[in-house]
């Protein structure tokens, strides 16, 4: 078993889709080990996406990620990191197949409903960025 970091982004929370996405997480066999609703400040969002700080879309990305609350989660499953990326679908919601989270709840490249760690190593870093040891069940 391994754990990955997942996020339901502000567009999906705003649209009332957090419940639908959590249902899919449960139906897909993940165990939720930690979960909370947070409204990221600018420094928290900038730190989280620091790897993209020189990309042209960085400003837009930080603006979006601070535009409302997000749900942050720790998800456990066999190969959780890849399994959650598969359930989300590709980054660009307009190209994501129906049946994936981004295909069904995202609307564009930027507003794509969810985040998932891109490696086990980054999953550990991202989990500890948002959760204390006492917050895992
Ligand atoms: P995430 O890290 O959010 O799970 P990802 O790993 O699929 O997404 P990244 O390349 O890490 O994709 O990009 C991070 C986020 O930046 C994307 O999810 C999207 O919200 C935004 N983004 C990426 N590329 C663009 C772009 N060309 N224009 C606008 N926003 C973008
Ligand atoms: Mg990424």
3D architecture notes:
This protein has 137 residues and is an alpha+beta fold. The chain has a single domain (2-132), classed as Alpha-Beta Plaits. The protein has helices at 10-14, 18-27, 42-48, 58-65, 80-88, 101-105, 120-130; strands at residues 2-8, 31-38, 70-77, 114-116. The longest helix has 11 residues, at 120-130. It is globular. The mean pLDDT is 98. Adenosine-5'-triphosphate (ATP) is lined by residues 52, 57, 60-61, 91, 109-110, 112, 115-116, 118.
Secondary-structure element string: EHHEHHEHHEH
* CATH architecture verdict: 2-Layer Sandwich
The mean pLDDT is 98
Give the termini distance in whole angstroms: 15 Å
Q: In one word, what is the shape?
A: globular
Question: Spans of 5+ residues with little confidence (pLDDT < 50)?
Answer: none
List the SSEs and their pairings:
Blueprint: E1 2-8, H1 10-14, H2 18-27, E2 31-38, H3 42-48, H4 58-65, E3 70-77, H5 80-88, H6 101-105, E4 114-116, H7 120-130
Antiparallel strand pairs: 1-3, 1-4, 2-3
This protein binds adenosine-5'-triphosphate and magnesium ion (MG).
Question: What would the keywords be for this entry?
Answer:
137 residues; alpha+beta; Alpha-Beta Plaits; four-stranded antiparallel sheet; 40% helix; globular; binds adenosine-5'-triphosphate; binds magnesium ion
Give a short overview.
The chain has 137 residues and is of the alpha+beta class. It contains seven helices and four strands.
């Amino acid at each position: 078993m391994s754990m990955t970091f997942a996020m339901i982004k502000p567009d999906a929370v705003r649209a009332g889709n957090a419940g639908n996405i959590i249902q899919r997480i449960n139906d897909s066999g993940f165990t939720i080990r930690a979960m909370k609703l947070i409204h990221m400040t600018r420094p928290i969002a900038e730190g989280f996406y620091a790897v993209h700080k020189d990309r042209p879309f960085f400003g837009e990305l930080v603006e979006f990620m601070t535009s409302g609350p997000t749900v942050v989660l720790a998800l456990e499953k066999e190969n959780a990191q890849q399994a959650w990326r598969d359930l989300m679908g590709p980054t660009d919601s307009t190209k994501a197949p129906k049946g994936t989270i981004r295909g069904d709840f995202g609307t564009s490249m930027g507003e794509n409903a969810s985040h998932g760690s891109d490696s086990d190593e980054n999953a550990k870093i991202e989990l500890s960025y948002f959760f204390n040891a006492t917050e895992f069940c």
